[in-house]
From TrEMBL:
<dbReference type="InterPro" id="IPR050482">
    <property type="entry name" value="Sensor_HK_TwoCompSys"/>
</dbReference>
<dbReference type="Pfam" id="PF02518">
    <property type="entry name" value="HATPase_c"/>
</dbReference>
<keyword id="KW-0963">Cytoplasm</keyword>
<protein>
    <recommendedName>
        <fullName>Oxygen sensor histidine kinase NreB</fullName>
        <ecNumber>2.7.13.3</ecNumber>
    </recommendedName>
</protein>
<keyword id="KW-1133">Transmembrane helix</keyword>
<keyword id="KW-0411">Iron-sulfur</keyword>
<dbReference type="GO" id="GO:0005737">
    <property type="term" value="C:cytoplasm"/>
</dbReference>
<feature type="domain" description="Histidine kinase">
    <location>
        <begin position="69"/>
        <end position="263"/>
    </location>
</feature>
<keyword id="KW-0418">Kinase</keyword>
<keyword id="KW-0479">Metal-binding</keyword>
<keyword id="KW-0472">Membrane</keyword>
<dbReference type="GO" id="GO:0046983">
    <property type="term" value="F:protein dimerization activity"/>
</dbReference>
<keyword id="KW-0812">Transmembrane</keyword>
<keyword id="KW-0808">Transferase</keyword>
<dbReference type="InterPro" id="IPR004358">
    <property type="entry name" value="Sig_transdc_His_kin-like_C"/>
</dbReference>
<keyword id="KW-0067">ATP-binding</keyword>
<keyword id="KW-0004">4Fe-4S</keyword>
Length: 263
């Protein structure tokens, strides 16, 4: 009987100690719980604040990219078309009536195109700018405008039958070609231009060759010397994850090769 009483006493003692420890520990666990809850709330608030900051930074970057895109379009497209119009009109010889008429018609066509491109620039402000026709057809029109303006250009356009698969990408590619042609007309003073395009193995290949003045290719990697035109071309090609190589020798012309993923 005494053995049973001692066992009962031991059990009561253990239970009492357990309750005592639980009672002492309970405030600690309550404090720990509320501390973790507070830290969780603070962390969530910090995440929300960081999210707001990220949204603001993203909006700023988007606005900066939009401004860069507008600046590039003003230079690469409107500037190029107006430059060609000016050069075409300044080359008119009034004694050659038929040639003068052809050049005036070409200049008027380019000016009308400038008006259209101004509307396209307005669409860009609203995020709506895409190429509304197949890239091959747009390249044909670019070549025709140069030929009509009196420039000797040979076009081998193997993407003429390609569908309008990537309108957002195609508008950037067209801007690249326009700027290359603008540089040739304004700076190279070439007598002949060759333009070749093709799609193979999921890549769009563009090759432009001229017999103009050429330049020192090393200078294009000097950011202080690089022109806005070449800088714009490189930036756009990088945007498309493409590659560009330029081979040029002073007084011996220039060859530009471009590879752009087209899948």
């Amino acid at each position: 009987m005494s053995f049973q009483n001692s066992d009962l006493f031991a059990i009561i003692t253990i239970v009492s100690i357990t309750i005592l420890i639980a009672g002492i520990s309970m405030p600690f666990f309550v404090v720990l719980y509320f501390r973790k809850k507070r830290l969780h709330i603070e962390e969530k608030m910090k995440m929300n604040e960081q999210f707001k900051i990220d949204i603001i930074e993203t909006n700023h970057k988007a606005q900066a990219q939009l401004m860069q895109s507008i600046a590039s379009d003003l230079h690469d497209n409107l500037g190029q078309t107006l430059s060609l119009s000016s050069i075409t009109l300044s080359s008119i010889n009034l004694e050659e009536i038929q040639k003068s008429k052809t050049k005036i018609d070409a200049a008027l066509s380019m000016i009308n195109n400038t008006i259209k491109e101004t509307r396209d620039l307005a669409k860009l402000l609203y995020g709506e700018q895409t190429l509304e026709k197949p890239l091959g057809e747009a390249i044909e029109e670019l070549a025709l405008s140069l030929k009509t303006g009196g420039y000797n250009l040979t076009l081998n356009n193997q993407i003429l039958e390609a569908d309008n698969l990537f309108p957002e990408k195609d508008i950037i590619i067209l801007r690249i070609l326009q700027e290359i042609m603008n540089n040739i007309v304004r700076h190279a003073h070439a007598t002949h231009i060759e333009l070749n395009t093709q799609i193979a193995m999921g890549n769009l290949s563009i090759r432009v060759k001229d017999d103009g003045l050429g330049f020192d290719p090393e200078k294009i990697y000097d950011q202080q010397k690089i022109g806005i035109g070449l800088h714009s071309i490189q930036r756009r090609i990088k945007l498309l994850a493409g590659k560009i190589t330029i081979h040029s020798t002073p007084l011996k012309g220039t060859i530009i090769n471009i590879q752009i993923p087209y899948t």
